[in-house]
Amino acid sequence: MPFYLKMSGASAPAYLPDVERGLVRASGKITAAEVRWLLSTGDWRRMAMGAWFALAVPAEEVRDAVVVGMAESHRDDSALPLAAVSSVLAGLDAPGAMESYLERIIDQPRRDQSCEIVAAAIAHLEGTPPIAPATWAVEAFEELLATAQDLQKTFRSARA
Asked: How many Cβ atoms sit within 10 Å of the Cβ of residue 102?
């Protein structure tokens, strides 16, 4: 709960230094079952944090839930962490879920920045996104991906 506003959407890289200590502390207690539950709720707050906390538990125990969460996300606040985390945990198995997300939002009046950033994630994973991502979106995705990779290392060190 105390992390979701700072760790949702594209803001996570900027805010991680403010909350990293608390996240690492909380990650020591989280279980794969709790991560799967967070990802299955449909609530953007829980899904965003479920994505980040998925990096703290064994990947094989949450990989499928992360991919399903990516496909079922309804807004950028959860889709962007899920795009970065599913890229880390599922790799080449993630673009299909990302494409499902984009199919749902690409023509909506509420289309947000996630459309271009998720397209950048698909391109990063050697897929063919339905739209060509702009340079800013590629940079934003790369920043989210680096955050996910760094956070995974930090969580692993803390849990060792």
From this structure: 23
Nearest to 31 by CA among 12, 14, 10, 56: 56
Question: Rounded distance, CA 145 to CA 89, Å?
Answer: 11
First CA to last CA across the chain, in angstroms? Answer: 25
Q: Which of the 8 DSSP states describes residue 26? A: H
Residue range 45-104, pLDDT digits in tens = 999 999 999 999 999 999 999 999 999 998 888 999 999 999 999 999 999 999 999 998
What b/e string do you get for 22-54 counting C-beta neighbours within 10 Å, with b at 16 or more? ebbebbeebebeebbebbeeeebbbbbbbbbbb
DSSP collapsed to 3 states, 1-34:
CCCCCCCCHHHHHHHHHHHHHHHHHHHCCCCHHH
